[in-house]
Amino acid sequence: MRRTPHTPKRRLVPALALLASLASPPTLAQYRAPPMSESQRLVKEGEQAQVSASAASASGDKKEAEEKYRKALGLFEKALAAEPTSITAAAGVGSAANALQDWARTVERVSAVHTANPSELTLAYPLGVALFKLRRFPEAVPMLEKVAQADQAEHLIVHYYLASYYLYAQQGDAAVTRLQRYLTLRPAKLSGNDFQIHELLGRAHVLRRDAVAARASFTQAQAGRPESPTVQLGLASVLELEGKVVEARTLLEGVATRFPQVAEPREKLARLYLASGDLTRAESEAAAVVKLGATPAAYLLLGDVRLARKQAPAAEEAYRKVLELQPGLVLGQMAVGKALQAQGRHEEAIQFLEAAVRSGASSVDLWASLGSVNRRAGRFQRAVEVHRRVVEMAPRQALGWMLLGADHFATGQWDQAIEDYGNALQVEPQHAGAKQWLARALAHRARDRSGGGRADDAVRDLRRAFDLDRSAVMARRLTAALLETRTYADARKVMEQGATLPGATWRDQLLLGYARLGAGDAQAALDAFNLASKQTEEPDQQAEASVGAALAEVELGQVDAAVQRLTEVGPSRDAASVAQANLPRVLVRRALARLEAGDAEGADRDLDAVDKLGTGKRGDLAKLALFARGLARAEAGRHPEAAAALKKALTPAQPWAWPNTRALADSFALYKKGQVAAARKQLTAAAKKPMPGQPKWIASMTGALHRREAALAYASGNMKLAEKALKAALATEPEDALVQHNLACVDWRKGKTSDALGTWRRLESTVSVASLNLGIDAQERRREPAEAVDAWRRYLASGTGPRMAQVREWKDRLQSLHGLAEPAGSVPSNGPAVVEETP
């Protein structure tokens, strides 16, 4: 049978029906929300009531708004009771309770849920605001900071609250950040109140000590409310920040006149008078503030003025009035403690502040005052315990570390104090007080280290102290330590800075003089000592400067002036001590200088003075004086005494002597004794290893030995040896006129008269003895009396030379024998002879 090509109709209809059922939308019953729980239902009703409350508040119906908020609060509390972990219920309780300003209820109901959900901002926001309103800032601020980080427009007020707290906590930078963010987020409809924000910004910039930004902010605030006393108060703060205190007072005086019933300008004006020391005006303004309103701030001001006037009982009375008006006020409690302390009632002050703490009062300032009073009462351990609490309460402030540093400073625990002040600087690197007190603690430790023989450690401490405190006092301490360690170049560098710093005195120039003297710049040292003397009119201080100048004069070779200064010291005991310590040394030095000039008698006088003064325990100076005495004895021809003195002076070897000093001294003594060969032997030994500066002296001594050998040979008639010695001397000093003259004398004795006469005539202007010898040759060899008289007349006219009286007798005798007249205008010379007779 053939199949039909069409599907039967009865089968097509069911298929279409199935397709239609599959293609149709699902039924609503399949996606119906589950029924709400009782808690959720109550939350929804609470939210509806809250919306109604907001509408009533916007319309100005405060009574209706309050009723609706209370209804919403009741519903939310029931919802939270039904489901204690509900975030929405807890958030509703917080928002409704805050609207009713029932801050304690928010904290009581919301805290547990927030603890379980710390990142939930819907809980952190109302709970943080409630804690803030209850002034529980340590709990509130971290919570509000977390909300502020979310940067949501609905949390705008959080920026304002945080800024207010930062201003209270004196954190200007943080306050500026929050206030600027507030201005960015606030709706345009709130811009009419921006003047308040700009005023707060001005206060924050004042805390930051940014006078330019502060003035700009207060100017913007003034544009919104020109006659605002508080804005004028802010502008006065800017003037004060700029150092224009007089202008600030003038501005406030005008504000007080225009707004006589406003207390704040008068209070600020009184504070300015108080700071400037005008206590009469300060008290007048404080009394006016009290009349305007018996507020805690007014009585606190009055107490401060009375305390400044050293009226501690009256100040205590005013401070206690503060606590009557506002019991538990921390500032009032601290002020009473301060007044008790000013009366010497430390124990009462401690008991009072301890009672305040036990009553629940707690603030950084209160604990700080309690610790400080304990320190002043001598209870150092308790002070440390309390101030450690301050560090825990304010870890980002230097205050606690500063107070701990003061505790340890008071007990001389320098290591611990240094650590404390160092920690304060880590927290606040620019804290001026921390730098200053760290420097002082370092200076005290340096003093102890110096006394304990740790001079290098003391210098390191003082270098660090001077870096922290660039003051004249600290420069003076560091310089003294550097002088003690003989680091003269560094001492000079430091003191040249210190002498120019504010507060520098004559003593800084005195130290600068010693630093320069140690560094080898005697002229600059003398200038500093003279300037020190000019910078003071006190005789004892001038005496100290004069002694320093004497030591500089010694180095400059002005020994006579130095001896006079050291002999005529003046009234200062310190100067007398320095002079007594240095005068023997200076006299020995002058004795050596006189010996070098050939003045043995003057050297002996100085050494006799040294013997009278004594050298104390300075064995090296005593040996040096004995050494000089030995040289003086040798110069005077007292050879056994000289040898004994030199041997004793250089046994054992002295620190001031060179290794070859003994050989040089023996060579000199033998030279003076006439033992040329032995002297030359000693000199040759010494010359093998000459010390710095000796080669020139050795060469000079070698020449002296040649001349002495020539003189001895000439006197004994050994012209050959005399000629050899003189030529050797002339080889070392070819321009020596005296050696040339004496060699001519040898030539004359050997018959080379023409050569001798030529040399004498050439040297006659420089060697007076040449005229004497020319006269002798004319009289004895050539029998020319007139020429001899003329030569001797020239010799006598020179005023110097040996045998002056004898030569005058010779001249006069020849003149009388041969009838030779004295030339017109000739005046015989009777000048003393100071030059040795030459051979």
UniProtKB/TrEMBL annotation:
TPR repeats: 53-86, 296-329, 364-397, 398-431
Protein name in UniProt: Tfp pilus assembly protein PilF
Signal peptide from the UniProt entry: 1-29
Coiled-coil ranges from the UniProt annotation: none
Keywords for this protein: Repeat, Signal, TPR repeat
Keyword Chaperone: no
GO annotation, biological process: receptor-mediated virion attachment to host cell
Pfam families in the record: TPR_16, TPR_2
InterPro entries, per database record: TPR-like_helical_dom_sf, TPR_2, TPR_rpt, Ycf3
Region spans: Disordered: 29-63, 819-839
GO cellular component, one term: cell outer membrane
Organism superkingdom: Bacteria
Repeat as UniProt keyword: yes
